[in-house]
Design brief:
heterodimer; A: 255 residues; MetI-like fold; B: 277 residues; Rossmann fold; 2 domains; four-stranded antiparallel sheet; 8 helices
């Protein structure tokens, strides 16, 4: 509770500074709206359903792309860790493509798929896939050999070994890879939505983009806040509990 | 009483059919390629372990005793020679020969009882209820009933090795292979475990092959102590320890035995130093 109050106080002070800066008229109100204006804007789009609609569209793209990335990336990561042939080929490719900022996929996606949902999904999948492959591979390679040997003597082999020993042992790595994949997917989707106008639905990125077009700063800041909050919530709701469980089991953190 | 003296022979014992050896190692050799050249870890090693026998392998580190244990376990393959368990050649690891490693090797993603259940879950023809019951029995045997649901990292080193012991015992193997399981523990914990392991060995009638570099430990636990010499790894001497059980590591008799074995161990080391010049 004390921690929560401290955090709340911190953000309250931040907003106060913002309000003060607005009132001091250091910058034009067009460039720096007041916190009140942003709140009014957010209330407006909440009331007319724009916010919910945009969030649903964005989250649907994100989740579908992310899940495809996981479903393809996990097995590929296992293959690259298990067989040299896959490690030398797919593993090397993943390592290379992971260094490519995922925004760089946008032009290619546009030319291949045009202004469609497929282009969006493609960019999100490319953002997720490579880091999931690499994290899974690293995780599997870092499983202490002694676990394997102990399991072997108890009669574990093949699928049982993979599902009951190697995957659980690699879990901390895999989860951090999933988290990184999520962050990359989120970033690349926002980039894609800002660059690409798709008639099948306006996501949060497009709202942000139109804010700029209309020079509506309260819209730009308001949507940015929404994006930050969604990112935070995803972390707290989805990843935090998993990480807490891992820390408790493995004893890797005091928290 | 010592030094390859035969067991007290009574007529009844002699008339009994000698039980087939539980583990039999015949002419096993194994070499390794290392940065400093090829090393012959095991050179024509032969060894028979009877059903219910407690055999200790003693030697300096790097003398090949762990390699031998791994070959018996089926975790490594010999270059030549055969290993028989119950008369059948060992081709890979098997539940009948469970290994307890120097590190506890417990799985951190499972709680204590989950670890003990791991081997049991792989054993067919048991209901999950049976498995739980068996796991609880062995946890009680090693004195850790209260820690069923503890996480592995919360346990002390001694407790971890107890869980490891329970995990190895739970699938009820006939042979236990122990690779310096107490080497990393403090003296007090170790002494408790000497008592426990002797008690469990007696109660559950196991055949145990125990690797250690601690002579006193070997004299305390083993029916027989086999002395390994390194480069190449060979069994040099064999000692029978016929002290009454349970044995106390601090007893005077035991110390006398240990001294004799230590002397032999040192002379093995000297001989090796001379030949290597």
């Amino acid at each position: 509770m004390k921690r929560f109050l401290l955090a709340a106080a911190f953000f309250a002070v931040l907003v106060l500074f913002w309000e003060a800066a607005y009132r001091a008229r250091i910058w034009s109100p067009v460039l720096l709206p007041s916190p009140g204006q942003v709140v009014t804007y957010l209330q407006g789009i909440t009331a007319d359903g724009t916010l919910v609609k945009a969030t649903v569209i964005t989250m649907r793209r994100l989740l579908i792309g992310y899940i495809i990335g996981l479903v393809v990336g996990l097995p590929l990561g296992l293959l690259t860790a298990r067989w040299k042939l896959f490690g030398d080929t797919i593993g090397t490719m993943a390592l290379g493509l992971q260094t490519l900022p995922s925004v760089c996929w946008v032009p290619l996606a546009l030319l291949w798929f045009g202004q469609t949902e497929a282009a969006m999904l493609f960019v999100v999948v490319m953002g997720t896939l490579w880091s999931v492959i690499i994290a899974t591979e690293t995780g599997v390679r870092n499983v202490p050999p002694i676990y394997r040997r102990a399991a072997l003597t108890m009669g574990s082999k093949r699928l049982h070994m993979w599902f009951k020993v190697i995957l659980p042992a690699a879990l901390p790595f895999i989860v951090s890879g999933m988290k990184q994949g999520w962050a990359f997917a989120w970033r690349s989707l926002m980039a894609a939505e800002i660059f690409v106008t798709i008639l099948t639905g306006f996501g949060l990125g497009q709202l942000l983009h139109y804010g700029r077009e209309l020079s509506a700063m309260e819209q730009v800041i308001g949507i940015m806040i929404v994006i930050v909050v969604i990112g935070l919530l995803a972390d707290k709701i989805f990843f935090s509990p998993i990480e807490k469980f891992l820390h408790r089991r493995w004893g890797t953190s005091q928290a | 009483m010592l030094l390859a003296v035969r067991h007290r022979s009574s007529a009844t014992e002699e008339l009994q059919i000698i039980p087939p050896s539980k583990v039999s190692v015949e002419g096993v050799s194994k070499g390794f390629r290392s940065a400093s050249g090829d090393v012959l870890a095991l050179d024509q090693v032969s060894l028979k372990v009877a059903e219910g026998e407690f055999v200790c392998l003693v030697g300096a580190s790097g003398c090949g005793k762990t390699t031998l244990l791994n070959i018996i376990a089926g975790l490594e393959k010999a270059d030549s020679g055969t290993v028989l368990a119950d008369g059948k050649p060992v081709t890979g690891p098997g539940r009948e020969r469970l290994v307890m490693f120097q590190e506890p090797a417990l799985f951190p993603w499972l709680d204590v009882i989950g670890n003990v259940l791991f081997g049991l879950n792989l054993k067919p023809n048991l209901t999950n209820k049976d498995r739980r019951q068996v796991a609880k029995y062995y946890l009680e045997l090693v004195g850790l009933s209260r820690f069923e649901h503890a996480n592995i990292h919360e346990l002390s080193g001694g407790m971890k090795q107890r869980v490891s012991l329970a995990r190895a015992l739970a699938p009820n193997p006939r042979v236990l292979l122990m690779d310096e399981p107490f080497a990393a523990l403090d003296a007090l914990t170790r002494e408790q475990l000497y008592g426990d392991i002797q008690e469990i060995w007696r109660a559950r009638r196991k055949t145990i092959v125990f690797v250690t570099h601690n002579v006193r430990e070997a004299a305390c636990l083993g029916d027989r102590v086999l002395l390994f010499s390194p480069h190449p790894g060979r069994i040099q001497r064999e000692f029978k320890v016929e002290l009454p059980r349970p044995r106390d590591i601090n007893s005077v008799d035991l110390a006398a035995h240990a001294t004799q074995i230590t002397k032999a161990l040192k002379s093995v080391g000297k001989a090796e130093a001379v030949t290597s010049k």
